[in-house]
Design goal:
Belongs to the HyuE racemase family. This protein is of the alpha/beta class and about 220 residues long. It contains nine helices and eight strands.
Length: about 220
Protein backbone atom coordinates (compact mmCIF):
# COMPACT_ATOMS: atom_id res chain seq x y z
CA UNK A 1 0.00 0.00 0.00
CA UNK A 2 1.24 3.49 -0.88
CA UNK A 3 2.05 5.52 2.24
CA UNK A 4 1.89 9.32 2.19
CA UNK A 5 2.98 11.60 5.03
CA UNK A 6 1.36 15.04 5.06
CA UNK A 7 3.00 17.76 7.16
CA UNK A 8 0.50 20.38 8.36
CA UNK A 9 1.03 23.63 10.26
CA UNK A 10 -2.55 23.72 11.52
CA UNK A 11 -5.74 21.64 11.56
CA UNK A 12 -7.56 23.50 8.76
CA UNK A 13 -5.58 21.79 5.99
CA UNK A 14 -6.18 18.23 7.20
CA UNK A 15 -9.72 17.64 5.92
CA UNK A 16 -9.48 19.23 2.43
CA UNK A 17 -6.27 17.36 1.65
CA UNK A 18 -7.66 14.13 3.09
CA UNK A 19 -10.67 14.47 0.80
CA UNK A 20 -8.51 15.04 -2.27
CA UNK A 21 -6.26 12.07 -1.51
CA UNK A 22 -9.32 9.87 -0.91
CA UNK A 23 -10.68 10.95 -4.30
CA UNK A 24 -7.51 10.84 -6.37
CA UNK A 25 -5.37 8.19 -4.62
CA UNK A 26 -7.99 6.11 -2.76
CA UNK A 27 -5.64 3.20 -2.11
CA UNK A 28 -3.15 5.33 -0.16
CA UNK A 29 -2.47 5.22 3.55
CA UNK A 30 -2.15 8.77 4.90
CA UNK A 31 -0.13 9.78 7.94
CA UNK A 32 -0.90 13.32 9.11
CA UNK A 33 1.79 15.16 11.05
CA UNK A 34 0.21 18.28 12.58
CA UNK A 35 1.94 21.00 14.60
CA UNK A 36 -0.36 23.99 14.96
CA UNK A 37 2.38 26.05 16.63
CA UNK A 38 4.33 26.31 13.37
CA UNK A 39 2.02 28.73 11.59
CA UNK A 40 1.51 30.71 14.80
CA UNK A 41 5.29 31.14 15.12
CA UNK A 42 5.64 32.18 11.47
CA UNK A 43 2.81 34.69 11.84
CA UNK A 44 4.30 36.12 15.03
CA UNK A 45 7.69 36.59 13.38
CA UNK A 46 6.21 37.75 10.10
CA UNK A 47 8.33 35.30 8.13
CA UNK A 48 9.75 31.78 8.11
CA UNK A 49 12.29 31.48 10.92
CA UNK A 50 15.30 29.14 11.20
CA UNK A 51 13.63 27.49 14.20
CA UNK A 52 10.46 26.68 12.25
CA UNK A 53 12.52 25.47 9.29
CA UNK A 54 14.43 23.17 11.65
CA UNK A 55 11.20 21.68 12.97
CA UNK A 56 9.90 21.13 9.44
CA UNK A 57 13.17 19.34 8.71
CA UNK A 58 12.65 17.14 11.80
CA UNK A 59 9.08 16.23 10.89
CA UNK A 60 10.06 15.28 7.36
CA UNK A 61 13.01 13.25 8.64
CA UNK A 62 10.55 11.46 10.95
CA UNK A 63 8.27 10.83 7.99
CA UNK A 64 11.18 9.25 6.14
CA UNK A 65 11.88 7.06 9.17
CA UNK A 66 8.28 5.82 8.88
CA UNK A 67 9.25 4.56 5.40
CA UNK A 68 6.56 6.49 3.58
CA UNK A 69 6.69 6.62 -0.21
CA UNK A 70 6.30 10.38 -0.47
CA UNK A 71 5.84 13.48 1.70
CA UNK A 72 3.40 16.32 1.03
CA UNK A 73 4.06 19.76 2.50
CA UNK A 74 0.62 21.25 3.17
CA UNK A 75 1.48 24.86 4.04
CA UNK A 76 2.70 27.62 1.73
CA UNK A 77 4.03 29.66 4.64
CA UNK A 78 6.77 27.10 5.27
CA UNK A 79 7.21 25.92 1.67
CA UNK A 80 10.60 27.54 1.28
CA UNK A 81 11.94 25.39 4.13
CA UNK A 82 11.30 22.35 1.96
CA UNK A 83 13.93 23.46 -0.56
CA UNK A 84 16.70 22.88 1.98
CA UNK A 85 15.07 19.76 3.47
CA UNK A 86 15.27 18.11 0.05
CA UNK A 87 19.06 18.17 0.38
CA UNK A 88 18.92 15.97 3.48
CA UNK A 89 15.78 13.83 3.17
CA UNK A 90 15.86 11.33 0.32
CA UNK A 91 12.12 10.61 0.36
CA UNK A 92 10.48 12.69 -2.42
CA UNK A 93 8.66 15.81 -1.23
CA UNK A 94 5.83 17.59 -3.05
CA UNK A 95 4.71 21.11 -2.15
CA UNK A 96 0.94 21.56 -2.17
CA UNK A 97 1.16 24.83 -4.12
CA UNK A 98 3.82 24.20 -6.78
CA UNK A 99 1.45 22.86 -9.43
CA UNK A 100 -0.98 25.73 -8.80
CA UNK A 101 1.78 28.34 -9.21
CA UNK A 102 2.92 26.75 -12.44
CA UNK A 103 -0.64 26.63 -13.82
CA UNK A 104 -1.23 30.28 -12.93
CA UNK A 105 1.96 31.29 -14.70
CA UNK A 106 0.82 29.52 -17.85
CA UNK A 107 -2.64 31.13 -17.91
CA UNK A 108 -1.86 34.83 -18.05
CA UNK A 109 0.59 37.63 -17.48
CA UNK A 110 -1.38 39.39 -14.73
CA UNK A 111 -1.62 37.14 -11.69
CA UNK A 112 -3.47 38.00 -8.50
CA UNK A 113 -2.33 36.27 -5.31
CA UNK A 114 -4.76 36.34 -2.40
CA UNK A 115 -4.06 35.32 1.19
CA UNK A 116 -5.53 35.90 4.61
CA UNK A 117 -2.13 36.06 6.33
CA UNK A 118 0.96 37.93 5.09
CA UNK A 119 3.29 35.08 6.06
CA UNK A 120 1.67 33.02 3.29
CA UNK A 121 1.32 35.81 0.75
CA UNK A 122 5.00 36.62 0.29
CA UNK A 123 6.34 33.06 -0.25
CA UNK A 124 3.47 32.32 -2.63
CA UNK A 125 4.29 35.40 -4.68
CA UNK A 126 7.94 34.34 -4.83
CA UNK A 127 6.91 30.83 -5.91
CA UNK A 128 4.66 32.16 -8.69
CA UNK A 129 7.46 34.38 -9.98
CA UNK A 130 9.92 31.47 -9.85
CA UNK A 131 7.59 29.18 -11.78
CA UNK A 132 6.96 31.91 -14.34
CA UNK A 133 10.72 32.30 -14.75
CA UNK A 134 11.08 28.54 -15.21
CA UNK A 135 8.52 28.78 -18.03
CA UNK A 136 10.30 31.76 -19.56
CA UNK A 137 7.32 34.02 -18.90
CA UNK A 138 7.21 37.56 -17.53
CA UNK A 139 4.36 38.13 -15.09
CA UNK A 140 2.95 40.99 -13.08
CA UNK A 141 1.76 39.91 -9.63
CA UNK A 142 -0.90 41.80 -7.69
CA UNK A 143 -0.84 40.94 -3.99
CA UNK A 144 -3.90 41.13 -1.78
CA UNK A 145 -4.65 40.36 1.87
CA UNK A 146 -8.27 39.62 2.77
CA UNK A 147 -8.24 41.69 5.94
CA UNK A 148 -10.05 40.14 8.89
CA UNK A 149 -10.79 36.81 7.19
CA UNK A 150 -8.24 34.71 9.06
CA UNK A 151 -9.27 36.16 12.40
CA UNK A 152 -12.90 35.36 11.58
CA UNK A 153 -11.94 31.76 10.76
CA UNK A 154 -9.99 31.38 14.01
CA UNK A 155 -12.96 32.69 15.99
CA UNK A 156 -15.23 30.12 14.36
CA UNK A 157 -17.09 32.57 12.13
CA UNK A 158 -16.61 30.76 8.82
CA UNK A 159 -19.49 32.65 7.22
CA UNK A 160 -17.75 35.98 7.83
CA UNK A 161 -14.46 34.50 6.58
CA UNK A 162 -16.15 33.39 3.36
CA UNK A 163 -17.95 36.71 2.88
CA UNK A 164 -14.69 38.69 3.15
CA UNK A 165 -12.90 36.35 0.77
CA UNK A 166 -15.60 36.33 -1.90
CA UNK A 167 -15.74 40.11 -1.89
CA UNK A 168 -11.95 40.40 -2.13
CA UNK A 169 -11.76 37.80 -4.91
CA UNK A 170 -14.41 39.58 -6.97
CA UNK A 171 -12.57 42.88 -6.71
CA UNK A 172 -9.17 41.35 -7.47
CA UNK A 173 -10.54 39.43 -10.47
CA UNK A 174 -11.33 42.72 -12.23
CA UNK A 175 -7.61 43.56 -12.33
CA UNK A 176 -5.95 40.26 -13.29
CA UNK A 177 -6.04 37.28 -15.66
CA UNK A 178 -6.06 34.61 -12.95
CA UNK A 179 -6.47 34.55 -9.16
CA UNK A 180 -4.36 32.28 -6.95
CA UNK A 181 -5.73 31.34 -3.53
CA UNK A 182 -2.58 31.05 -1.43
CA UNK A 183 -4.01 28.89 1.37
CA UNK A 184 -5.61 25.44 1.43
CA UNK A 185 -8.26 26.76 3.82
CA UNK A 186 -9.67 28.93 1.02
CA UNK A 187 -10.20 26.10 -1.47
CA UNK A 188 -13.74 25.23 -0.40
CA UNK A 189 -14.90 28.59 -1.77
CA UNK A 190 -14.06 27.75 -5.38
CA UNK A 191 -17.45 26.09 -6.18
CA UNK A 192 -19.15 29.31 -5.01
CA UNK A 193 -17.22 31.52 -7.45
CA UNK A 194 -18.89 30.67 -10.74
CA UNK A 195 -19.65 34.31 -11.51
CA UNK A 196 -16.01 35.42 -11.27
CA UNK A 197 -14.70 36.48 -14.69
CA UNK A 198 -11.26 34.83 -14.46
CA UNK A 199 -10.00 31.40 -13.33
CA UNK A 200 -9.58 31.02 -9.57
CA UNK A 201 -6.99 28.42 -8.62
CA UNK A 202 -6.65 26.60 -5.32
CA UNK A 203 -3.96 24.18 -4.26
CA UNK A 204 -5.50 20.99 -2.80
CA UNK A 205 -6.74 19.41 -6.05
CA UNK A 206 -3.74 20.34 -8.20
CA UNK A 207 -1.29 19.63 -5.37
CA UNK A 208 -2.64 16.13 -4.81
CA UNK A 209 -2.74 15.60 -8.58
CA UNK A 210 0.99 16.42 -8.62
CA UNK A 211 1.45 13.95 -5.77
CA UNK A 212 -0.33 11.27 -7.80
CA UNK A 213 1.82 12.02 -10.86
CA UNK A 214 4.98 11.72 -8.78
CA UNK A 215 3.84 8.33 -7.48
CA UNK A 216 2.81 7.21 -10.96
CA UNK A 217 6.20 8.18 -12.35
CA UNK A 218 7.86 5.87 -9.90
CA UNK A 219 8.94 9.01 -8.03
Amino acid sequence: MTAIAVVHTGPVTVQPIKEQISEQIPEARVINIVDDSLLNDVRAAGHLTPEVASRIHSYMANAQAMRVDIILNACSSVGEAVDSVRNFVSTPIVKIDEAMAEEASSIGRRIGVLATVSSTLEPTVRLVKKKAGDLGRTVEVTERIAEGAFEALLSGDSARHDEILKSTISTLAEQVDVVVLAQVSMARLVPQLEGVRVPVLSSPRSGVAALKRALGNGI
